[in-house]
Each structure stands twice: as C-alpha cells, then as structure tokens.
C-alpha cells in the first residue's frame, strides 16, 4: 500500500522497459523514456552490460518471465488503444499511470486525443518532476494529471468529457488494491464513461502464486514487490471479474491469457524472453 512514498514497482516496470531497450532484440515494446524515469540504481544497472548480466540476468534471472509480462502488457495496451482511436475514440485515461511515457512519445495517431494520467499523488509528483528534469515542456498539450489515492478518494473532477467514448487502461494496479477500492474505482469509471468506452486491465489468477513449477516467477514477483512495500492482495478469476464488471455497468469482452500473449508477442524469439504464468488481461466495454 502506498502512503507518502512513490511507487517502487512503477520504477521497477520502467527499469524492465529500460533494460529491454538496451539489451534485448527484437523489441516487444520500445520506450526511450524508461531509463530516465526509473531510479538511479536501476538506470546504472540498465546502462552497464556487466551489471545487467550479473544482476538482471544472473541473480534475478528467476524474474525473467516477469519482463515478458510487463512488455506484452505494454504493447497490448498500445495496440488496443490504437484500434480504439482508429474507431473514433477521443480520450485516453491511464489509471495508475506510473512511469508510462505515451504522453511524451505521443505517436501521430494520438493527435488530438486528450490524455489523463490518474495516479497516487506521491507517484505522480515524482513523475512530473522527472518529466521536467528530462526536458519535457510542461504543461504538455492535451494532457492532464489527476492525483487520486484509490484507497481513500473517489475520482476527482477534471476536464474529462463524459460524452466522448474513452479508453481506460488500468495496468499493473488492481492486485495492489483492496476489494473495496477496486469496486469503487470501477463504479467511478462507469459513472464517467460514455457508452462504448473500454477498460483494459491486467489481473492475477488465484492459486498461481505457488513456489514451484508454473507459479515460480509469480511467487518471486510477489516476494520482491512485498519487499518494495507493495503487496499483491487481490486475485481474480475471469468469472469473478465478469460479475464485478457487470455490477458496475461493463461487459467483459475478452480475456487474454499469458499463453495467448506469449504466442502473439514473443513467438520465434531466439532469446530467453518468456511470459509469466498466472495473469490475464481483461478488456471490458461500458454498456
Ligand atoms: C506496478 S505500477 C504500474 C504502473 C504502470 N501502469 C505500468 O504499467 O508501468 C503500480 C501503479 O499503481 C499505482 N497505485 C498503487 N496503489 C494506488 C492507489 N491506492 N491509488 C492510486 N494509485 C495507486 C502506483 O502509484 C503505480 O503507479
């Protein structure tokens, strides 16, 4: 649970993107801002071939499938957002944005799409400071940062247009939240989302965090994130999510499982990049 500290797991996902850009080929996801956004320690590791080999691919090699999880999640988000925008969607909301950099990279197909980054105030303050330090000219056009602690507050007022179909990404967040915070956030999103809006989020499956076989990488990720002060506390089956979403006014359109995503984004690689077992990515539509 975050309080006054910014999210260390957000820095870790940025570190995974930074290491991927420096050390993996072919790329699943390309984020030139990740190295700047991560912590100084991770930046040093990413920049050094020797440190990366020794630490990331040596001591922490059991976490390699976690890299695949984060990278395929990032690329799927971009692909789904692009499809949604091509069909006429006009706003993009990142819930728990962390150090995502799409607002800075802004591909041409996002021209005119207003981006809202909702995040815990402590993480968002650090991100805005790092954006400025990295040379971004703030305020960015068509961009708004909305600080919200999902455990304590409801989604705040902003320049959001509740008549426009909107794409909401809530990646890397729900397993850190209580059931009450997940339900309240779903209700808030449903309240402001025009019909046809979509919500994309990843979730952890119960029973996979076992310290053996297929659950090994997830067990390690659970240990490491707990050490960072951010515990996995919520696990869901697709059936449970369908009920939660339905209650809030969404229909569950599809669930991509780890194996589907591995086949889509990591097939035929000549290296050891694989996708962790035990998670899924849900796509839901506002009725
Ligand atoms: C693992 S990071 C994921 C960041 C980003 N979405 C990504 O995929 O790289 C978790 C994010 O959830 C946010 N978060 C965790 N608990 C939160 C809370 N109670 N309220 C708001 N944001 C929260 C953190 O600030 C952080 O940005």
Characteristic terms for this protein:
single chain; 287 residues; alpha/beta; Rossmann fold; binds S-adenosylmethionine
Strand content: 15-25%
* Global structural class: alpha/beta
Extended strand count: 7
CATH-derived architecture: 3-Layer(aba) Sandwich
SSE sequence, one letter per element: HHHHHEHEHEEHEHHEHE
Give the helix level as a range of percent: 40-55%
What is the strand arrangement across the widest sheet?
3-2-1-4-5-7-6
Shape: globular
Bound molecules: S-adenosylmethionine
- Terminal CA distance reads 32 Å
Q: Which secondary structure elements does this structure contain, and how are they paired or packed?
A:
Elements: H1 8-23, H2 34-37, H3 40-47, H4 49-59, H5 64-86, E1 91-95, H6 102-105, E2 114-119, H7 121-133, E3 143-147, E4 166-170, H8 179-192, E5 198-204, H9 216-227, H10 238-248, E6 250-257, H11 258-265, E7 279-286
Parallel strand pairs: 1-2, 1-4, 2-3, 4-5
Antiparallel strand pairs: 5-7, 6-7
Helix pairs in contact: 1-3, 3-4, 5-11
The structure holds S-adenosylmethionine.
S-adenosylmethionine binds at residues 2, 7, 9-10, 13, 96-98, 100, 119-120, 123, 148-151, 171-173, 176.
Short description:
The chain has one domain: Vaccinia Virus protein VP39 (Rossmann fold). Helix content is 43%, strand content 15%. The protein is built from eleven helices and seven strands.
Structure description:
It contains eleven helices and seven strands. With 287 residues, it is of the alpha/beta class. The chain has a single domain (63-286), classed as Vaccinia Virus protein VP39 (Rossmann fold). Strands 3-2-1-4-5-7-6 form a seven-stranded mixed sheet, sandwiched between helices. Strand 2 (114-119), helix 7 (121-133) and strand 3 form a beta-alpha-beta unit. The chain is globular. It starts with 7 loop residues before the first helix and ends with a strand. The mean pLDDT is 95.
């Amino acid at each position: 649970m975050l309080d006054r500290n910014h999210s260390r797991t957000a820095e870790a996902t940025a570190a995974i993107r930074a290491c991927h850009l420096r050390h993996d080929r072919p790329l699943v996801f390309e984020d030139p801002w990740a190295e700047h956004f991560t912590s100084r320690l991770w930046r040093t590791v990413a920049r050094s071939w020797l440190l990366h080999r020794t630490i990331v691919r040596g001591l922490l090699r059991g976490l390699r499938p976690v890299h695949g999880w984060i990278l395929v999640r990032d690329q799927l988000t971009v692909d789904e957002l692009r499809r949604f925008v091509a069909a006429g969607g006009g706003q993009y909301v990142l819930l728990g944005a962390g150090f995502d950099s799409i607002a800075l990279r802004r591909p041409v197909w996002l021209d005119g799409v207003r981006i809202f980054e909702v995040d815990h105030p402590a993480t968002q303050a650090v991100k805005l400071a790092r954006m400025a330090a990295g040379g971004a000219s703030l305020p960015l056009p068509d961009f708004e940062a909305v600080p919200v602690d999902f455990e304590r507050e409801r989604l705040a007022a902003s320049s959001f247009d509740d008549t426009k179909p909107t794409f909401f990404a809530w990646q890397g967040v729900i397993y850190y939240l209580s059931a009450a915070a997940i339900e309240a956030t779903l209700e808030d999103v449903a309240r402001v989302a025009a019909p046809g809006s979509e919500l994309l989020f990843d979730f952890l499956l119960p029973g996979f965090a076992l310290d053996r076989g297929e659950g090994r990488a997830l067990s390690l990720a659970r240990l490491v994130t707990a050490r960072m002060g951010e515990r996995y506390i919520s696990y869901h089956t697709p059936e449970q999510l369908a009920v939660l979403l339905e209650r809030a006014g969404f229909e569950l359109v599809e669930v991509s499982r780890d194996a589907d995503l591995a086949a889509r984004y990591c097939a035929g690689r000549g290296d050891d990049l694989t996708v962790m077992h035990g998670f899924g990515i849900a796509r839901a539509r506002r009725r």
